[in-house]
Automatic annotation (TrEMBL):
Keyword Methyltransferase among UniProt keywords: yes
This protein's UniProt keywords: Methyltransferase, Transferase
Organism: Actinomadura darangshiensis
Gene Ontology BP terms: methylation
Signal peptide: none
Highest taxon of the lineage: Bacteria
Domain Methyltransferase type: from-to ranges: 48-134
A GO term for molecular function: S-adenosylmethionine-dependent methyltransferase activity
The keyword Transferase is assigned to this record: yes
Name of the protein: Class I SAM-dependent methyltransferase
Amino acid sequence: MALTPDYDADPERFRLASRVTRRYLIGARSLHDHIAVKLLHSGASRVLDIGCGEGALSDALPHPPPFRLVGLDASGVLLRAHPAPRVQADALRMPFRDGTFDAAVAVNMLYHLDDPGRVLREARRVLAPGGLLLVTAICRTDSPELSPVWRPEPTPFDAEEAPARVCEVFGEVEVERWDAPLLTLPDPAA
């Protein structure tokens, strides 16, 4: 079950968040660019983008990418903007055979779920032995000055707990800190 609203019922909510991010975060594309570089150097031939939305990761890759990229999202509305191949499905029950992918990605997606461990187990199932999983998580203790307007309460998959949650399923984890770009807000007086 998701913690966030149904994007099919209100796709503009997702698009608004994306527009705000692109407009006010300096270098906002850099997270997807960073993940894209990791994938390009991974040697993977089949990659699953879990919770792909409208395809921000696909946009960060060369066209065509040097591997088969499949986007998976529960929102059919958002998927319409994602280049094919794309699959509308629940990440808790991925419609793929065991070992289908060499790599899987979940960019800022797992904290939207009540039980991210279930998606991690599904990702492990659809990954080939030795497959690569790249996940990102927000840090709830970052930017305390934003706590009045930014969700200060823990989510089920914060950066603080993410390594342990991933390790429970995959047995090992490598953590890389990535600092978010600078947030710039419009000056109403300008």
